[in-house]
Amino acid sequence: MPRIAFMGPMGVGKTTAIRALCGDDMVASDVPNLDRQAHAKEFTTVGAEFGQIDLGDGEFVQVCGCPGQDRFDFLRQWVVSASVGVFVMVDANAPDAMEAAGALLAEAAAAEHPPLALVLSTRPASAATMQAFADGLQAAGHGVVPVLQVDVRKRADVLQALGVLVSMLSLRSESP
Asked: What is 3-171's CATH number?
């Protein structure tokens, strides 16, 4: 069963996106956040989160969320290495978003079998900001990476992004 990974900094919406897709049929690993200086959110992810989506006709996709803290990079690398696609999630408006997305894209590209990547901006951003972000990733040497704006609370938005990634994977499998 193909696996899609959700990766990004702490608080960007990885757990929320998986919950939007899977509802309560997900395995979460949230615990109370003891590092309120890093982020004010009440809970944080300390392990991989899993869910499964029925695409119809007996086809399923596994979704897996990675913790955002650097101390769990070993877990993120394992999840990415076992994935065919990744969503790199950032807030395109944040001053460190380009650096964060670039580092995560490089990490995914370094996997033995690199997954296809798609960047999701999880906060509202103007079309100009989104285009500048995509152009910046390309200028930084990450190639042409689709950048989509998604409200991770809305199942339809996350499903649409998943559809784009599945289409990209389908095109890759058809390539000689």
From this structure: 3.40.50.300
pLDDT at 46 over 70: no
Q: What whole-number distance in Å separates Cα of residue 59 and Cα of residue 49?
A: 20
Q: pTM (2 decimals)?
A: 0.86
